[in-house]
């Protein structure tokens, strides 16, 4: 992208115009860079999966017909990788939807009940113990129920994947907002990596996260969903101690909370 040369001494209209133009070009350039990075990351993700599929199918073609155990092992690996690709594809489609449309279907619902429902859904898949501590019996908010549930599931799934034993979920009411804190006692995130965890495809440890089935898209989806609700999401973490995800949501969508 070409920029206009700026003559700093001249403060006339032409100078102002060139400055605005250069500023716009910088934004276009940043957006194009992000787009290129996204295409490169998405391609890399699928390339890795395709390499795995190619490897296992070759294995079956060479030895799989004589060695039934190898045949079974390869088919299981192929199946798992297909599921992963499907999951990543759905998440990518969802991100694209969120960026272009982002409509909310608002209704009034009880966030305490929604948290219980989400825990109930994931608990059978995990050996970690989850304790839910709401400050009130009911907490009615106006929001997009499905989207809020999706955020809870993303954060809880991460907490279950990366915690050692315990997860605690606190739900409190503030003046015009609710605060949901999900705390785990897990491996934590290094301080220098924290600023990047909401970026698409960002994984703290690529190889480790591939084993846990992570795509690096969950937190970026959660952040966009919370932004749509005019809420906030923040992560605090200490390596080998644990991670805390703090979400605030306005109780009433027409009255966003006053930021402190
Ligand atoms: P993934 O699908 O890989 O979990 P996310 O976008 O949800 O992707 O998270 C991005 C990365 O942040 C993860 O790959 C993981 O390295 C790190 N992370 C997220 N949540 C936690 C957590 N509770 N404890 C430790 N690391 C976490």
Describe this structure in words.
Helix 2 packs parallel to helix 6 (218-228) and helix 4 (145-162) packs antiparallel against helix 6 (218-228). This protein has helices spanning 13-64, 68-100, 111-122, 145-162, 206-211, 218-228, and strands spanning 107-110, 129-134, 140-143, 166-173, 177-184, 232-238, 242-250. It is α+β, with helices and mostly antiparallel strands. A five-stranded mixed β-sheet has the order 2-4-5-7-6, covered by helices on one side. A two-stranded antiparallel ribbon has the order 1-3. The protein binds adenosine-5'-diphosphate. Its main location: membrane. It comes from Paenibacillus aceris. It is a multi-pass membrane protein. This is Signal transduction histidine-protein kinase ArlS.
Attribute tags:
alpha+beta; single chain; 5-stranded mixed beta sheet; flat; 6 helices; two-stranded antiparallel ribbon; 260 residues; binds adenosine-5'-diphosphate
Strand percentage lies at 15-25%
What is the number of E strands? 7
Q: What's the gyration radius in Å?
A: 23 Å
Write down the overall geometry. Answer: flat
Strand order in space, largest sheet: 2-4-5-7-6
Q: What is the helix tally?
A: 6
- Helix/strand-derived category reads alpha+beta
List ligands, each type once: adenosine-5'-diphosphate
Helix content: 40-55%
Q: Please summarize the sheet with the most strands.
A: 5 strands, mixed
Distance between the termini: 40 Å
Could you name the ranges where pLDDT drops below 50 across 5 or more consecutive residues? none
Average residue-wise pLDDT: 87
SSE order, one letter for each helix or strand: HHEHEEHEEHHEE
